[in-house]
Each structure stands twice: as structure tokens, then as C-alpha cells.
Specification:
With 482 residues, the protein is mainly alpha-helical. It contains 27 helices and no strands. The N and C termini lie far apart (55 Å).
Amino acid sequence: MKTESLAKQRPAAAASSSGLERLAAGVTAWSEKWFPDAYIFAVIAVLVVALGAVAIGAPVQKVGIAFGDGFWSLIPFTMQMAIVAISGYVVAVSPPAARLIERLARLPRTARGAICFVAFVSIATSLLNWAISLIFSGLLARALARREALRMDYRAAGAAAYLGMGATWALGLSSAPAQLQANPGSLPPSLLQITGVIPFSETIFLWQSIAIAAVLTVASMVVAFYSSPTGEKAVTAQELGVDVGEAAVKVAPPARPGDWMEYSPVLTLLIVALGAVWIYNEFTTKNAVLAISNLNTYNFVFLMLGMLLHWRPRSFLAAVAKSVPSVGGVLIQFPLYGGVAFILTKAAGSDGHTLTHMLSSFFVSVSSHASFPALMGVYSAVLGFFVPSGGGKWVIEAPYVMQAANDLHVHLGWAVTVYNAAEALPNLINPFWMLPLLGVLGVRARDVVGFTFTQLVVHAPIVLIMLWALASTLEYKPPVLP
């Protein structure tokens, strides 16, 4: 990669970087050097919560039992979240998606228009599936970079491709907290007793939640447009030394007679047809909102779509194999978060109270019905930089913040939306969720974070003000148990 030599060759461009870009680059360089893997933070969370439980008088034996009992409590949800990532990736790298990307890449007429277009596609696809957003938008940025006549700043385009994950993903269908709260079978029993079941109609389909997503979409596109360097200041993929050739999944031709079934679409068509019968029944016999809010249904639809788009089993299997490394963190970290949730809610101290009770009491003491959404938003955003897992962090936070929401009579679905909107903010500067996209783009976090940090500066006040202002339009409803 030629990033360092490029900086020497273009001192004028480097000097013209804004203070925000230099600050963002410094933050990212520091985090890349000093931040351990997210797994380490999950382990630290377990130990901190365990020590906290012991400090309030819970016996060590009770803490250990709670950890072990909770360790496997999230297994259904863990598998579901892994499939969200795998199915999204599979759809994004399918041959029809590659052809669609090539057509879309021909639409923009200017470099800034291209970057704005990438931002829109990233945000729009994130509302369907965050994994599709990351991979599809990254491949679109590569395709646009192949149009050398555009002279598009590849760094800004990469940052635009990340906006779905950094702005709106948690307000869409693949929102881990919203999906978890809508599926009682996936909820830890202790959390279910506090929150009840909260359907999509009370979280991501609230008009208030949709309004936040719409405002963030417009703001993101405006910032992407005006913060993109043009002309000689633009740094292209070629100048960065990035090969932007096509990155579609390639499958070798059959090598033996027994391979013919792996390359025949017949089996794919039969299994997809069988699945289509179930999907049709699911959406015709149930309310559409309830149907899609079932995480198993959501994943089933995307898996069937992925099979169909790849057409041949061998292509589908190759895409799945390529996607699996991206879910390693989910598979090993979520059980730890399940253990944390049980320690918080089950390991009572000498006075009979748990950490959840004490933390929720603290939130109630420092906030009011009106200020709670803003305070919770700031807290979730800050914690999100250290625990970069929307679903896993929700399992940690939810027991005490949702208990506080109950005590303060804050709309429970809105509390989930507060978390969703605020939790995405640290993604804009945290390298953890950038990794799959950076792999597609062929750049480093420091190349794009100047632009994403600029987005963060604009997004943070918008999100917090809207979370506070719109809370007054909703009335509290007690938990609904299944």
C-alpha cells in the first residue's frame, strides 16, 4: 500500500487536512495501537460485574453459578446474529448483486455525486441488513473507483460506504436489540421479566424512529457531499495503491463427475421453492410486521434469497465459507454477555438486591422522565466505544436501563430506540466494525476515519436532541409478558 509515500508526495494535500480530520486520525491511530480485541473487553466486563456483585455482598459461589447459568442463555440469539451476518454477506457478493453494482456505478456524473450516492446506498441497505450494507457499499465504492475519469476521493467513498453501520443500521430490520426484544424465545428470562415483549411496531416502526433515520440520512449525505475533496485534493484508489478490480466470489469449474450436483441449480430451485411455500404462509397468515420481526423468519428469507441469487450450490457454499470469519467475535463473545446478564440480575447481595437494582436506582436518582433519554443516549454511546457489540452490549445494559425506564415511566420501545440511535455513534470512529469493509476496500481505518469523525460531530447533537425531544410524544406502557 502506498499511503505513506503518498503523504510525502502530496504535502499540500496533507497540510490542507482539517483539524477534525487530524484529530480523528490521531484517535484512530491510538485505538489501533492500544485497543485490544473486543473479546478482551467482554472478558473484562465479566470480571468487573463479578467483582461488583461480590462487593455488594453476593457470595462468590452464587456469582459463579449465575455466570455459568447465563453462559448458554443467549445461544439461540447468538446463532441468529451469526446468520444475519452470513446471509447478508452471501446476498451482497452474489453474481446478480455484482451486476447490479456495475449498473449502479454508471449512474453518478460527478465525484462528489458518486460519494453522496454511496452514502445513500449504504444507509438504505443498512435498514435491511447491516452486513449487506457493509459489503455491498464497499463493492460499489470499488466499482466507482474503476471509473478513473470521475477522479473520486477513494477515502471519502470508503467512509460513505460505512455510514449505514455508523448511522442507521440499528434503526433497521437487523437491529439486534429490536430483534431480541421482539423475540421472547431469544430473551434471557431475567430480562424478559423487566421489559416484556416489545414488537417492532413499538421500536423501529415508530414514526419517531423513522424520523430519526430520515434526518440522519439527509444529514449524512449532505456532510458526505461537502466534506469530499475534489480536483487535485482528491486521493484516488490508484494513488493509494489499491487494486480495485472485481472482487466477486469465483468458483472453479467442476473437476470430477461427482461435482455436477454442486454446480446444478436444480437442488437450489427445489429447496428455495419449498422455502417459498413457508414464507408465503408466514406472511399471509400473520401481520407482516409481526412476521418480519421474527428473527428466524428474517434470517430464513435472506438465506433463501442468497441461495437463489447464487444459483449454484458451489457458489453459495463458497460465499458462506468466505463470510464465516466475520462472525467469530459473535460466537465467542455473546456467551460471555449472557453470563454478565445473569450476574447482574441473579447474584443478589447481602440485602437481597442485585447490581441491576442498584444501577437502575442510580439512573433514576440522576435523571427524570424528561432527561432520561438524553442521559441514556450519552451513556450508551460512550460505553459503545469500549464494547463494540450492539446486541451483546444491550444484554449488559438492558436489565438496569430498562428497569430505570419502567421506574421513570419512559416508553419502553423508545428506550430501545434511544439505545439503537446512540449505540451507532461510536461505530463512526471505532475500527472494530470497520474491519469487514476495510478488507473489501483495501485501505486502513486511518484512511477513512477523518471523514467518519466529521460525520460523528454532526450526528451526535442531532441524535441526542431528537431522542430528548421526541420522547415527550410517547406514553409509557407497562411490560407485556407473553
